[in-house]
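Usage example:
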Amino acid sequence: MGIQRRRKLAYEARMRDLKIMLRKIRRSPTTIAGLVMVFIVIIITVFGEYIAPYPEDAYKIHPERVFRPPSWQHLFGTDEVGRDVLSRVIIGAKVSVTIGLGVVLLSILIGIPLGLIAGYVGGWLEVIIMRITDIFLSIPTIILALAISAMVAPTLENAMFALTIGWWPWYSRLAYGLAKSIKNNDYILIAKSYGAGPLYIVFREILPNILPILAVKATLDIGYAILAEAILGFLGFGVRPPTPEWGTMLSQGKIHMPEKWWLVTFPGAAIFFTVMAFNLLGDGLRDVLDVSEY
Amino acid sequence: MEILRVVNLKKYFPILAGVFNRVVGWVRAVDNISFSVDERTTFAIAGESGCGKTTLAKTIVGIYEPTGGSIYFRGIDITRLKGKKAFEYRRRISIVFQDPISSLNPRKRIIDIVTAPLIIHKVKNVDKAEMATKMLELVGLDETFLYRYPHELSGGQRQRVAIARALILNPELVVLDEPTSALDVSVQAKILQLLKELQEKFKLTYILITHDLSVIKYMADKVAVMYAGKFVELASKDELFNNPLHPYTKALLASIPVITSEEKKYVSKFMTKLPGGEPPRLSNPPPGCRFHPRCPYAINGICNKVEPKLQEISKNHFVACHLYQKLIID
Amino acid sequence: MTLLRIKDLCVHYITVDGVAKVLNEVNLDVNEGESIALVGESGCGKTTVLRTILGILPENARIVKGKIIFKGVNILSLSREEFYKLKGSEFAYIPQEPITALNLFYTIGDQFTDVLLLKGTTKINLLKYLKLKRELYPKLGPEVIKYLKIVKIPEPERVVKSYPFQLSGGMLQRVLIAMAIAKKPSLLLADEPTTALDVITQKEILDLLKSLKRELGISMMYVTHNLGVAKEVSDRIVVMYGGEVIEIASTEELLEQPLHPYTKGLIGAIPKLTITELKPIEGGVIDYYNPPPGCRFHPRCPLATEICKLKRPSLIEVSKGHLIACHRIKG
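Running the assembly step on the lines above writes:
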């Protein structure tokens, strides 16, 4: 059969799958909302400096225009040192979203392979990996992240690292459960009968089965990781001012409540919007990908 | 020429209990099985669910390691091989399972499913799509199936894919574990016909495992009847169907719901009183002959105490039953 | 006397991929005291027919047309209340998988007594139920044992105290049959109850059903894909293909002298114990979203001609009691 024909068939098949997925998405308004919202968040994160009206306010202070309420020049008002709140919210997205994405990505890279191997191979490996997983699971993620953040320098990377340490075991547990439940399916046994080793089976037979649930969980988690990061910031850990960050903006603004409400409301709304965005998308993905758990 | 010889094969599974997972018993799924298969023939194992036949199939193809005994493939004991040598033999024996749904990875496209063995055995210099198309053609599926997912296919089509995959490395021996039981009658007929054609074409040897004796009548050359982990009768197909000896074999034949009057006449020869009861648990089989609690002809004192051995009663016809052993002694 | 008459029944399923026009004007009768087998391969609609009678169709099913007349009443036109009352007292159902039909947390005796207590009742409040149960339980005990003995369950006293997971598939199926006949139904509906059982147990259950039919004169509709099983339990066989009834005849006549090309093909495709020949039926399964025009079997029929592609053949009686829907075979 010609290469041409083969390429055409492959292309047609992928188009068909895409069409089905789009049809499912179209049917769910919440998914569309989630997609749009996440898109907005990503655009703001990536192009923040070009969108923000006063990008220099990330660091520069303007004592002449402190505590201005929302107006046409400053849609979200100005803060206690005169910085434009809208710009700081926009640029603050960079910190929060980057950490959120980073935490989830790292947790997947660490937790998934460990969980899959523990689940499929079993034996001592299973015991060691899962006991370590259990230990980390028993400590509340935020508390662990706080403890670690207190010990290290307040940089973005360290905040990400602190959260990841408490986050990865959830992915390990997820992968473990799944690997265990499908490892006796016939298609796995057939691979075994051909002499396939555990690495092939885990990464080329089991892993594709975990992707739908993983996609849903990861998407939902990005929202929660961003929230966790904001909590760290609010409590004074993680990145430190003057770097714009939603959590720190909340904690610095709260003493001025309720008169200067705009200092707290807009960063809070940003957190809400972002977490909601990933939540809706994650839920929508669950329906689209037909995944009934997690 | 003999291609496979199984000698005293055993596969036991430990039963664990207690906090420390102590071994409290064994499930004797395959308990001392021996047989040989000539190349290009079909050896059928007849048995019902729970008799250990699937475990036997999985042990032959290397999914399970035997607890005891040996499997000789063209004279080499493949159960004693390790590492690279063992790996080489894996491509010479393949298996097709009963359930078309769970035999195919639901997240992979057909082309990847069929060519997976090529990847496992690192076969180089071969065009994946080319090979996949060729194999699918052999089983009667056209190239539009290449990029589909299993859930888009019917049961019969999935089984064809499973067969295509089983043949892609040119095996010499194919184990078929209830290959058509999950399929409709008309689909089953086509798959069985296909299997016969492929056997001719590629000089294959089949080990066919099924509970359906009519399918065995159509496909097999030699038949073994399995009950509770053991072979109770072993004979050529014609001999078994013309002259079944073991009470369990007769009961099986008598129970088949047949359609035509010739078949009705045929099965009515065998047994009027059915065994009753259920097949025993493999973890706690009855003492002596495992069939004795259900056997209408059981002799008290012998059948419930002494395990009968598989013995040759007439030429190439083996039975494990005290009724016949008595005859020999007499 | 006709007990059940299904007239021109059309049932469609609404799915993401469109409308599956499964049942296409199904017509069949069950007479009093007779047992009919509804035979066909998977997807032919036989289970849909059963579910329509029992009112257990899934949410996306639509009864587009037709009547089901039971003892003179069209049950499809009854209110939910009336239908449940009728179902409870007149129909009994034996499902395919015994273990999923029973509650694992209650003993067999407990569940059986509930059946005897509640048959026909559609509404009962909790207090009334508990009171009734306490009163009648001791009296119903012997009833339960009686029915368990009828289905030849060994040691019924022990079984009454057992939980479903402690019993084997064959035993559970007998329990379900006992529960079904304890309701003294007018019509017994069975959905391939022996599929999950091994061959020898299957024969025992089939023998049991045959003897019950003889002794109690029960009317039965038995759905199965296995012609051999149908032969064991039925007086008449109704053959379905692609959502249509294509042949009806007495069991003996259908198997000895099948007329419809599909029936003949089906019989030819079954492996037999006495001959070593197998003739598969050509072609593939029907697409209910775009069913073939005219006779639904025509794409696979060796005898198909022009009229078969255009006009749907109706069920005609070609000899006494033998009906067939085919343009090419006239008896």
